UniProtKB/TrEMBL annotation:
Protein name in UniProt: Uncharacterized protein DUF3553
Listed Pfam families: DUF3553 (PF12073)
Annotated stretches, region: Disordered: 1-21
Organism of provenance: Rhodovulum bhavnagarense
Length: 60
């Protein structure tokens, strides 16, 4: 099974499992392991995909 981060694309809605208070975020870009996400409550964050597995949200 492939890691979840490998299926992420710009426009997808995700949650950060370690920061639930950030709320849902929209993926802005995926460049290698660097995933830029604009979170509702935390703004733009660059996530290291080798350390954090973002969770896709089906009903934001």
């Amino acid at each position: 099974m492939q890691p979840l981060n490998t299926i992420l694309e710009p426009g997808m809605i995700v949650r950060h499992p370690g920061q639930p208070d950030w709320g849902p975020g929209q993926v802005q870009s995926v460049i290698g392991a660097r995933i830029t996400v604009n979170f509702r409550e935390a703004g733009k964050q660059v996530i290291d995909g080798t350390r954090v597995e973002l969770m896709p949200v089906h009903n934001p």
